[in-house]
Structure to design on (86 residues):
């Protein structure tokens, strides 16, 4: 994913599929706060759960564009996504 593509998700709640160091695919559902370039490391997607390197992202899908979302829980094993908005 390029930095310009990642900036389109700022302020939105997204499901992000990415790979860790060992190559396992992980899924995070979180609000995207920023997409930025860190010198010597590359592009990063700054979320409320984690900072994710752009070159490790497999896919991003939009869950909600609601900025007032407070609680997002995922159960990866059963594939259930629960979202509670204030």
């Amino acid at each position: 994913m390029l930095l310009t593509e990642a900036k389109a998700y700022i302020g939105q709640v997204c499901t992000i599929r990415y790979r860790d160091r060992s190559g396992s695919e992980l899924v995070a559902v979180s609000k995207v706060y920023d997409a930025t370039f860190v010198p010597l490391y590359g592009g990063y997607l700054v979320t409320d759960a984690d900072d994710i390197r752009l070159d490790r992202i497999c896919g991003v899908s939009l869950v909600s564009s609601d900025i007032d979302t407070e609680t997002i829980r995922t159960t990866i094993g059963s594939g259930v996504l629960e979202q509670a908005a204030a």
